[in-house]
Design brief:
homodimer; Multidrug-efflux Transporter Regulator, Chain: A, Domain 2; 2 domains; two-stranded antiparallel sheet; 6 helices; DNA-binding; transcription (chains A, B); DNA binding (chains A, B); DNA-binding transcription factor activity (chains A, B); DNA-bd_dom_put_sf (chains A, B); Helix-turn-helix domain-containing protein (chains A, B)
DNA sequence: CCTACATCCTCTAGCGACTAGAGGTGCAAG
DNA sequence: CTTGCACCTCTAGTCGCTAGAGGATGTAGG
């Protein structure tokens, strides 16, 4: 058995060292065995689990959603309906967020374009912020 | 002078009561005068300021950016270059975020579509999460 | 074997922008 | 006068880490 230190686990999974310890502390990752000198010694499976978590985090899944996804992964004979539901919910969130950010972008563009680069009292950025009624797009 | 209570200030500005107190505590809003019984009494100008803050927050500006925007608003003879720069920076952020979310959306769609609604060991959602190499889009 | 240095350990506190709750006071209507 | 809501302050919690203190371990070179 080659021992994988936390540093190497971090490098291989792309999760930072303190974050690995954090995941262990919240029970997302099982506590690994320890060396004589009390240092963590990870298994290859832990690296996979960390990579899974990292990827899910990059996709914006919350820790609790990931916890559910991981329990599903741990028991591959279950129905994947929950995984499907979680992913679908996340998709809806992302679509909503894109819509709202797109409206926002239009708003910001109007602000920036309208700015005459003069003094504040003619500045459209400040003006639009002060008066919501000037919003051209129903972003909120 | 009609006194505006914190509750009415909240209703009129769309900022929640505890959040109004929070803004005061971090110096975003000047501490208002108090009634005999130590209750806050706001001016109409405070409502405008709160509405400004709320709108800026909805547009995703950070508190420190809003602090700068507010000092600009307080002195309308200044150049609006800073306001312009802040808005432009925010626009760049928003555009970046939209791009990344759009890639994410494609990823999630692939996951959800591929899901045969069977057991976990055939589930594409879990599979893709476990193996970053299966990502079709360079979202991260 | 000793030293230097990177890496590891635990623990606590901090980030942003609030939000929730405890425990108490003020105020207007019935 | 009492009911009941709105107000007050203060502390602690949220999420997902991140930073730092202060110390122990592991490894490579001399």
């Amino acid at each position: 058995m080659k021992k994988i230190t936390i540093g190497e686990a971090a490098r291989r999974s792309g999760v930072k060292v303190p974050t690995v310890r954090y995941y262990e502390s919240i029970g997302l990752l099982a506590a690994p065995s320890r060396s004589e000198g009390n240092q963590r010694s990870f298994e290859p499976a832990d690296i996979n689990r960390l990579a899974f978590i990292r990827h899910a985090r990059e996709l914006g899944f919350e820790i609790e959603a990931i916890r559910t996804l991981l329990t599903l992964q741990d028991d591959p004979h279950q129905s994947c309906a929950s995984a499907d539901a979680i992913a679908k919910a996340r998709l809806v969130e992302v679509e909503q967020r894109i819509r709202s950010l797109t409206a926002l972008k239009a708003e910001l563009e109007t602000m920036v374009e309208g700015c005459g680069h003069g003094r504040v009292d003619q500045c459209r950025v400040i003006e639009v912020l002060a008066d919501h009624g000037q919003c051209t797009h129903p972003h909120h």
